[in-house]
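Structure tokens please, single chain.
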Amino acid sequence: MNRQKSSFYFDEMGGGGTIRPPYSGLDSWHRDMPVDIRNFKQHEAEALFRRIGITFAVYGEGGDPERLIPFDMFPRVFTAGEWRKLERGIKQRASALNAFLADVYDRGEIIRAGRIPADLVYRNEAFEPAVLGFRPPRGVFSHIVGIDLVRTGPDQFYVLEDNCRTPSGVSYMLENREIMMRMFPELFLQNRIAPVDGYSSLLKKTLASVAPRKCETDPRVVILTPGHFNSAYYEHTFLADMMGVELVEGQDLFVEGDFVYMKTTEGPKKVDVIYRRLDDAFIDPLCFRPDSMLGVPGLMSVYRSGGVSICSAPGAGVADDKAIYVYVPEMIRFYLGEEPILENVPTWQCGKEDDCKYVLSHLPELVVKEVHGSGGYGMLVGPKADASQIEAFRAKIEENPSNYIAQPTLALSTCPTFVEEGIAPRHVDLRPYCLVGEKIELVPGGLTRVALTEGSLVVNSSQGGGVKDTWVLAE
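Here you go.
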């Protein structure tokens, strides 16, 4: 098989005919695999994903919106030493983000100290006055933190963005591993790979650890879903099954007195912890959007009185806004008294006059993002854009500068990916899932997303990206 090379990016498997040690156990595996066997295995993987029902929805498109996320069989590999650095940096960041949330919904000391502009927080559309002055159990606002990371060199990792509300994709991390173990059991006999299958029990333990004080018995945890039309509904059902908890919609819950109850055939059952997978605006029509049919009337009143825990807390999104992202290193210094282990990508804030001038004069070189954007939408990749796209984005920035940030076009690392000709380098990122409760924990691995189109830097599934199994080699 031919292996296409890229001379401009760090190739995680190695370049110039050398194989990096983490990938040594995979070199002969892919070389010795006949093309017909590889094609058969790829079809087998797709059939397994479809049989299990792992699909996602793409809104705003005609026809059937349910799609399979493309799965690439070539694993991504980290050494135990690489993972130790990432783990320390992720835990540090999750701790600082939660300290920030606890602070800005209380005294706002970081703002009083002049470390973060007040307007960025208090006028942020994700800031929720409804939780001002409220301290959730253990002071945790964001219980599942997804940190998006990119690699640019052997020892260089950057945080691309933080996801503090309801980060999705963990079901793919778990199912990718399950399918790889089913299709290539010999790889797991020949390589010492740290397991990820403890995630669901760790998640349940984390959620139970933040039950309210009014909880007198073993906490009852439920997952609150917007319903089967949601793009991540498969994941909601998957996690409920894995944890052995009920998957509920708003109509399945009701408030009575100081508590929330779930309707069952055996009568009402008190609910202690709600892992919500719907946006703040839809949680409670009496507090947020009055037209919401997805939430539970009166839920916020019970939450504020300490009768139920909501994970992650309403208002947690103010910590993962792209304008706030710039200040996370300062949060780490302010709250933890430490230097950041993982660096931010250098970022220009278009709301600042000098930054905006620089961005407008360098648009062909930069990646520009909406501060509230997600999913790879609302962004400009300057080096890949034509003149008309650049000028259209210039007009958007000039009209509302504070709605945009800009970053250099990073040389994202590449990972071997199966293509028709054999394997070829494709750009990847990584989303580990950090759980914050009584302890801060994460399983060794995460969701590797891969830009399947040659040369593309956009890994999002809604933009044609795929996924890979992520290995952390055991000591």
